[in-house]
Amino acid sequence: MENNVLKIIEESGSKGPKYESLVKIFKLYEQLQYATNIKHIAHDIYYWLNREFKIDNMVFTLFNINKNEKEDIYIEGEHFYLDDEFSNFFIINTDTSINATVSFRAISKVHNKIIQDQFYIIDAAFHLISPIIQNGILKKNYIESSSIDSVTNVYNRSYLVEHLNKHLSLTRNKQSQIYFLMVGIDHFKAVIDEFNHDIGDIVLIELAKVIYSNISEFDIIGRLTGDEFLISLFSAEYEYEVNSIAHKIIADFAQTEIIVDEKTNQILKKTICIGIDKHLICDEKDISETIKNADIALYEAKNKGRSSLFNYKDLRIEDTIDLF
C-alpha cells in the first residue's frame, strides 16, 4: 500500500491522471478528518467509493484477530458473496489486534475492469487512512469499555441514564411520552446457588438476546443490577403496543432452553416478570423517578407470580411500599 502512494507521488509531475489520483485519495483523507466514530468513518468511505468509483454496495467489517470474531459496522446496498468474480476485498492494517476490511462488488464486467485498473488508488487511499481507522477503533473500544456491560453487551446503568437524558432533550418536541419496562428474572439467585455464576451469566446473555429480538433499533436496553434490565421503548406509542411487546418477551424467554451441561444435555428454563411505567416528556418529573416506578411495578409483578406483567398506574395506595 505504501509503495502505491509513493508511486503515485513520483509519477504525478503534472496535472494528469496521476495527479487526479492523488486528488481522489486526499479527498477521502480530508473527509475523514470530520468523522466522529468508526461508523461515521465507514459511511464516509462508502460515499467516497460511490462518488469516485460508482460503487453502490459495501460492507465495512472489524475483525478481531485474537478472538477470531468479526463485527459488521456498515452495510450498504445489495448482498453479495466474496467469492463472486466481481467482488473486491481489502484489509486495512491498523497495527492493533483489530483490522478493518472493506468489500464491495462491481456491477458488471466492464465496471470491474475499471476498478481493477484503479485498484492501486483505492489501495493507497486505505493505507493513508489506516491511522484514522485505528483511532476510530480505539475510541470505540474506550466508549464500550466504559458504557457497555461486559456480560450482556448492553448499556450499563450509568451510561444508560446519561444517554436517556440526552435523548429525551432531543425528542422533547417530537415525542410526548416514553414507556419504560423493568425486566427481572424470577428466582435468579437460585441459579447461582444451584449451579454457578457462569450459568447465571449465560441466563443473562440469553435474556438480552430475547429482548433485542423483540424491540426496534430505536429502543434502548441497559442492565441496571444483577438480573434487572431496563428497556426504553421509543418506538411504541400506545399502551397496547407496549403490553404486546412485554408479553412477547415474557413468552419467548419462558421457551428459551439454556444448556447447563453439554455432556448430559441438561437444560434450564427460567421465567421473567416485567414492570411498566410511562414517562411524560413534557412533565417536570425526573427520569430517575420513572425508573423507580418501573422497579416498583416489577416488584408487584413478581408478587403476582412467575411470568407476570404489572403497570405502575394500576398500583393501589395500600400496595405502595418504599423499596429504596
From TrEMBL:
GO molecular-function terms, A-Z: diguanylate cyclase activity
Alphabetical list of SMART domains matching this protein: GGDEF (SM00267)
Pfam families reported in the protein's UniProt record: GGDEF
Cited InterPro entries: Diguanylate_Cyclase, GGDEF_dom, Nucleotide_cyclase, Rev_trsase/Diguanyl_cyclase
Catalytic activity: 2 GTP = 3',3'-c-di-GMP + 2 diphosphate
GO biological process: cell adhesion involved in single-species biofilm formation; negative regulation of bacterial-type flagellum-dependent cell motility
One Gene Ontology cellular component annotation held by this UniProt entry: plasma membrane
CDD domains associated with the record: GGDEF
Identification of the protein by name: diguanylate cyclase
